[in-house]
């Protein structure tokens, strides 16, 4: 046997295309079947909540007093729909309102509140945590003490006080959740910025005369996006459950407007006689929260550099 050696013509060749961090993370995510199924389920739920209320022949507040507590797939006998052969697929509630329309319109309200509140928390937490983590020292101490004070205020007290000042509605619930919900994001971003601000690329940017706002916005926050995305995915089900809980105890959206929590509150009062009234919102809340939690676990595995 003779040693041939390496081929000088192929020595500098690229064996495979370069894979960036984000592309590698997406590849790992889409090779996770549970995360892919949950992502598809979330997209399907969002699209259904947007489209289905426009496709059903009934309005969410339309009452059919002669058809209370109807079961699944009950034909509509109201004279307004005579000859149209329409059906209450999910049945009706105590006022004869179509549960299919109310369930998906309630999902639209619940998801709108959850996404809006989490978006506000994301913006406030990223800016606050980025400034605190980059400057450090006395600025960091003062800002973190403020976070501890805000975090020590019970969320329910904030909601009750805001309900006394502001009218019930989506805006009030978003404000209430965002008032005390941004502290977790701020702590997370601050910890990431503390570990990144001594890296070579940040020192190089400072040496080139970059302002603090540019360093935070262009260098620190983009490098924390993976952790932020995971945290946002896990915050959405928490916001959905909070909205459902507040609507269940009567502190949520106004009564004529449906939401999953409002439907669950109405169904719980008649659970022994008509259990399907509670099953529909309960299954919707459970599926949505489970899908977001499992997707968050999949994102955590995909973005973990140690894997």
Describe the structure.
The chain has 307 residues and is an all-alpha fold. Helices cover 65% and strands 1% of the residues. It has a two-stranded antiparallel ribbon.
Number of strands: 2
Work out the radius of gyration: 26 Å
- In what range is the share of β-strand residues? under 5%
Instruction: Give the neighbour order of strands across the main sheet.
Output: 1-2
Number of helices, counting only DSSP H or I runs of 4 residues or more: 12
Label the overall shape. Answer: flat
**Span from first to last CA?**
40 Å
Average pLDDT score: 85
Order of helices and strands: HHEEHHHHHHHHHH
Percentage of residues assigned to helices? 55-70%
Structural class: mainly alpha
Unreliable residue stretches:
none
Biggest beta-sheet profile: 2 strands, antiparallel
Secondary structure elements and pairings:
Elements: H1 21-30, H2 33-55, E1 74-75, E2 87-88, H3 99-135, H4 137-151, H5 155-165, H6 170-181, H7 183-196, H8 200-207, H9 212-220, H10 225-248, H11 260-269, H12 276-303
Antiparallel strand pairs: 1-2
Helix pairs in contact: 1-12, 2-3, 2-12, 3-4, 3-6, 3-7, 3-10, 3-11, 5-6, 8-9, 10-11, 10-12, 11-12
């Amino acid at each position: 046997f003779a040693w041939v050696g390496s081929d000088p013509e192929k020595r500098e060749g690229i064996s495979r295309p370069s894979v960036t961090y984000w592309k590698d993370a997406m590849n790992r995510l889409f090779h996770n079947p549970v995360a892919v199924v949950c992502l598809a389920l979330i997209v399907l739920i969002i699209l259904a909540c947007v489209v289905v209320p426009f496709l059903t022949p009934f309005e969410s507040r339309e009452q059919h007093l002669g058809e209370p507590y109807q079961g699944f797939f009950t034909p509509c006998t109201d004279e307004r729909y005579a000859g149209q052969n329409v059906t209450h697929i999910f049945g009706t509630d105590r006022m004869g309102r179509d549960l299919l329309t109310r369930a998906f319109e309630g999902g639209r309200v619940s998801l709108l509140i959850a996404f809006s509140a989490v978006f506000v928390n994301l913006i406030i937490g990223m800016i606050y945590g980025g400034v605190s983590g980059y400057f450090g020292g006395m600025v960091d101490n003062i800002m973190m003490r403020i976070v501890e004070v805000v975090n020590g205020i019970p969320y329910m007290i904030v909601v009750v006080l805001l309900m006394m000042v502001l009218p019930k509605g989506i805006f009030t619930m978003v404000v209430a959740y965002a008032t005390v919900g941004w502290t977790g994001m701020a702590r997370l971003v601050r910890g990431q910025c503390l570990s990144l601000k001594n890296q070579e690329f940040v020192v190089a940017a400072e040496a080139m005369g970059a302002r603090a706002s540019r360093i935070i916005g262009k260098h620190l926050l983009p490098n924390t996006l993976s952790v932020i995305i995971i945290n946002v995915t896990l915050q959405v089900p928490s916001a959905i459950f909070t909205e459902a809980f507040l609507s269940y105890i009567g502190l949520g959206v106004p009564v004529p407007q449906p939401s999953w929590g409002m439907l669950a509150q109405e169904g719980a009062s008649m659970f022994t006689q008509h259990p399907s009234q509670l099953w529909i919102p309960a299954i919707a809340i459970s599926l949505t929260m489970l899908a977001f939690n499992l997707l968050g676990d999949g994102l955590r595995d995909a973005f973990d550099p140690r894997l």
